[in-house]
Amino acid sequence: SIRDIAEDESVFLHENVKDPAPYLAGCDLSVSPVRVCSGYPNKIVEALHWGRHPVVSYREGVEGLPASIRAEIAIAENPAQWVETIASLVNEGRMSGERVERIQTVLYDELNDDRILSALEEVYDRALESR
């Protein structure tokens, strides 16, 4: 269980966090070991937005994200790949300022409120027109 892992001195477990920004800004790696997803992978987007570190996930965990954002996430499919990917990313350290800037731009371009609202308005307009 997560509590068993958190007994290791190098692992920090923070429960019921109201604002994840300070935690995400201070970590070296975000891991999203989610295979069965429902809805949108908000935790991955938060990690990319607030963090300056890599993110690793199963392929299923990034479904629903635009391809330009999925391209910035390391994918691992089995336990050996997870260990290898995490070790490699931890050794690489934090992302370069250039990569962080690129990710921030992609997040804004793909997920900003105006763009989402505009897309929703188009969907609603088409639905109303088809009535």
Structure write-up:
- The structure is a single chain.
- With 131 residues, the protein is mainly alpha-helical.
- Helices cover 53% and strands 6% of the residues.
- It is built from 7 helices and 3 strands.
- Strands 1-2-3 form a 3-stranded parallel beta sheet, with helices on both faces.
- Strand 2 (55-57), helix 4 (67-70) and strand 3 form a beta-alpha-beta unit.
- The longest helix is centred in the last third of the chain and has 17 residues, at 113-129.
- The mean pLDDT is 82.
Report the sheet with the most strands, covering strand number, pairing sense and barrel closure: 3 strands, parallel
Helix content: 40-55%
The strand count comes to 3
Poorly predicted ranges: none
Strand order of the largest sheet: 1-2-3
Number of helices: 7
Evaluate the radius of gyration.
Answer: 17 Å
Helix-strand layout with pairing:
Elements: H1 2-5, H2 21-26, E1 30-32, H3 42-50, E2 55-57, H4 67-70, E3 74-75, H5 79-92, H6 97-111, H7 113-129
Parallel strand pairs: 1-2, 2-3
Give a nutshell description of this structure.
This protein is mainly α and 131 residues long. It is 53% helix and 6% strand.
Which structural traits does this protein have?
single chain; 131 residues; mainly alpha; 7 helices
